[in-house]
Amino acid sequence: MKDIIETLRFSQGREFINLSAGNPVILPAVEQLWRECTAELLSSPEYGEVVCRYGSSQGYQPLIEAVVERFNRRYGLQLTERNVLVTPGSQSLYFLAANALGGYSTNGTLKQIVLPLSPDYTGYGGVTLIPEALKAYRPRLDVDESAHRFKYRPDFQQLEIDETTGFVLFSRPCNPTGNVLTDEEVHKIAAIASTHNVPVFVDSAYAPPFPCLNFTQMQPIFGDTIVHCMSLSKAGLPGERVGIAIGPEAIIQALEAFLTNLCLHSSRYGQAIAARAIRSGRLETISETIIRPYYQQKFTVLETALDAAMPADRPWYLHRGEGAIFAWLWLKDLPITDQEFYQRVKEKDVIIVPGSPFFPGLEGDWKHTRECFRISLTASDEALRTAMYRLAEVVTQVYD
Ligand SMILES: Cc1ncc(COP(=O)(O)O)c(C=O)c1O
After folding, report:
1. Residue 160 has what pLDDT?
2. Where does ligand 1 bind, in terms of residues with CB under 6 Å?
3. Which one of 109, 113, 131, 257 is at 20 to 30 Å from 48 when CA atoms are compared?
4. How far is the CA of 311 from the centre of ligand 1 (A)?
5. What phi and psi, each to the nearest 5 degrees, are found at residue 42?
């Protein structure tokens, strides 16, 4: 990221197509929703209560009530307010969990944070103060050679979850790959974990009901040991830092206590406008009708361009685009490293992200980790097309 930032800052008149961004696009209808919720808040008597007073660590009561009501109605759950915690962004939630449930316990045993399928969100790399607590597992690869597509699957032959596991964590849909673990795979992981009473944190930053960035069928999965972790960032509110966890009361309480020590509570302005957007159902509607179609169409543009431009006789594979705001490209047997390839693409004024930082917690040498790239879907159609053609030229040169 440092190299990307410096490249863009000192670009001296060069126009880069930047496909590294993780920031969501500002979609007019989404911005409008947040403006409306802000206007409603400003003109309500609630305003002073929201910004001029401290609140509870668990979160702003109307937001918690809105979450309980919507999720119980939509998914037939029996949540109470004690099942919900609001955090300052979902990243902080993983930090709380990593240090409350993972790491060394008082008797000296190491409680591991298990990432069942690597690659996964690079942000998990820094969540624990005890780096050796993070353990990721290599996936199985389903490859469709003639279609130039592939998909990662959890490898249940290898996966170990037992009493030494503090908790399990994965993103669904996944940043960086766009993979969506199937409902069956999630149930299977949860079943293994629950036999050892291990919580499973499902990072749902891209999942339904908001921001609904799944392009394939998926059900959010709830249960006695599952913590469903949401973020409002990809629903257009990254600046306000609102994360929401839904889970078993005992875990929510432990995380809440940790949060109190850390920062007392999340900022309340973002929570108050989120309460309005969720309670009214507007956030769910906008997610389904605006946010999801926008990125799904971008993925189609990208894959169509790659299919047209890439050399058919080279082993390139695009991960199935099942969700999130990225595409993930695997260049099998790439003759140079991902970092070198990134530099070669940069010479063509295109920036993509080398894949190797997306394997936090993975032990041992696996050349696949140096053969992958994350491509953001946040650019214009034209920029995406041009970039894919330039990338294909580099692929041809490098393999030749
Ligand atoms: C999979 C995943 N989890 C968590 C986060 C952190 O999001 P937040 O803004 O809620 O802290 C991100 C941000 O990009 C993400 O991609």
Report:
1. 97
2. 22, 89-91, 121, 123, 171, 175, 203, 205, 231, 233, 238, 243
3. 257
4. 34
5. -60, -35
